Amino acid sequence: MPAALDPGLDALLAGYRGYLRLFAGSRLAPALSRPRPVRRTGFETELVVDRREEIADGVVALTLARPDGAALPEWTPGAHVDVVLPSGAQRQYSLCGDTADPARWRIAVRRVDGSGGSHEVHADVHAGTRLTVRGPRNAFPMATETGYLFVAGGIGITPLLPMVARADALGADWRLVQLGRDTASTPFTGELARHDERVVLRTDAGHGGPPTAAEVLELGTAGRPVPPAVYLCGPPALADAVRTELAATAPATRFHSERFSAPPVRGGRPFRAELARTGRTVEVAADESLLTALRRELPGIAYSCRQGFCGTCRVGVLDGGVDHRDTLLTPAERDEEMLVCLSRARDASLVLDL
User: Candidates 3.10.20.30, 1.10.10.10, 3.40.50.880, 2.60.40.1120; correct CATH number of 8-37+265-352?
Assistant: First the structure.
């Protein structure tokens, strides 16, 4: 338990917090507060949707190109781009086209209930729509190995498609286990059909529910040893289960995963976030992210990756200690800012520049 503060010091701190709230909500704040722009690196341009295609129930693929047909930057399997939607919302999508095609990029988007970004893509983005795109960046790179097992959960096939093509081109031994709710909603099955027995499609509808991690590995190995590397993209529960199963049965295998949803909160405690500019207070539960709680009060708050590496959700901290859980911010930046998708209050409350 922390030591009790001197009554005079406690009153001084309370007054300081009140001053911060008053100042941040005043007309002077925008003029005197230092702006905190999201850092942008690398390529950024306006691309046009060259083609839109529904590739499965609830999934559309968008082919992007420069309006003048000029070459796009090179990219490697596992790369993603930031896409600014017509509303201004920013989302990240894996590139799932041909790395050898210099003129076109492809992304695929599943419509998800409660996801404004995916609904906007499905409703408002069509052939001819122009989108600002940043990237590519790669937080899920593919290493050169003699053998691979790829595991895709639903739309998690997108970063793995170029990896499959790369493994095939290298002549490596590989297999893909593709998981989905049912065949109609599982994307790219037709494109993968040419690989025959190397691709195993397993649906919940056809087997009475989702598979166990042991079943996934059995499907992917067909009785042979687990290959040197396993690459998985899918729900967090699937990734955690396969990681645990590999640690117990094939500890020498290198496991690589990418989540397409926010990681679960671990070791969280409830706290309160005071929003200085608006005067609102947000209660953050132990098992939810600060971003999730903030979106209840500020639905338009900027965010993208929800995993702490893009920097879109950085917010100024006016008062309170921060439990920083990202690897993006520098020590100097951590003195003044936090990424609300991952980081939390170190104590009972924070005052944010919102």
Answer: 3.10.20.30
